[in-house]
Design a protein that fits this description.
mainly beta, Barwin-like endoglucanases, 125 residues, six-stranded mixed beta barrel, single chain
Amino acid sequence: MHRSLGFIYILLPACIFFTSCAKYVTQTGKGSYYADKFEGRQTASGAIFSQHKFTAAHKTLAFGTKVIVRNLSNGKKVKVTINDRGPFVQGRIIDLSESAAKKLGMISQGIADVQLKYKTKKKSG
């Protein structure tokens, strides 16, 4: 303890947390979700598509990338894993499984303005 000008200060040890050198990237656009006709089909990554898993399709992100998707109209978020390619409709940036779309509260609309947040891979070199 340190006494100065009649005040008592308690010095607490500082905690320092280190993170990887990866940085977060955000992307904003239209999100949609897969039709039921894709249930049980093989995705581009080789995984079998299930509406019950929290997965998504993106045009360029590496398979296995974890993405936080936020519905911009209601603030709801969900974490999904990229395991497929798409969407193939102009103006859309992600296709979600039905479970992910439900968690975002976008089932009745089918399409929502979303923000994606994900880490970029650290470049070696």
